[in-house]
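Data deposition worksheet. Section B asks for the primary sequence of the deposited chain exactly as it was used as input, without tags or linkers unless they were present during the calculation. Section C holds the resulting structure in token form. Section D is free text for depositor observations; keep each observation to a single sentence. Incomplete worksheets are returned to the depositor.
Section A, Depositor: J.P.
Section B:
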Amino acid sequence: MGKKHILILLCLLTLLVFTSCDTNRTLILPTSNADQTGNILLNTIIVSNTTTETTIYEGEVLPNSLKQNQIIKVLGYGVVSTASASDSVTIRFKVGGVTKQTFTLTPKLITNEHLHIEGTTTQRILGTSGIRATHQDICIGDECSGNNGVGTIDTTSNSNLTITAQWNNAKVGNTLSLYQGFMEFKNGY
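Section C:
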């Protein structure tokens, strides 16, 4: 059996297991109490030689889709290179289009250093005045930044998660490449 036949078989098996299969971006698992993974990034996103804030990851969270005590994790992996030791990149976490956390890292002169993005939230209370505990970590090589907190979030409206990257200088050597990104939904009861 050739590679093409195996891929077709895997796709058919996927359709039997998953409720939907978007071949351009993500696999969406069925709604249940089980852990779920979705919003999978299938293409490398590159931010290079620009100072424009650029979306590097977006995960859909539909209105009224969250559950109390549910844990949501977002993970992203890639590499970063800088043109000089003074160049920095700003990573922003946004929910429903509103910036919730901002991290600026100046990782020194580097070439293809690993990029690790992780965000975890626990949805404590649902509704227009919902309560969410959050934690984010961003690492480029050995330089890391993070944050913890508790805040309000309206779970009845758009809660899409967006992560952006923005360089302080537009230089050919300033490059961020996000290779992987996905969301996990845990403890959904």
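Section D:
Residues 3-17 form the longest helix (15 residues).
Confidence is low (pLDDT under 50) at residues 3-30.
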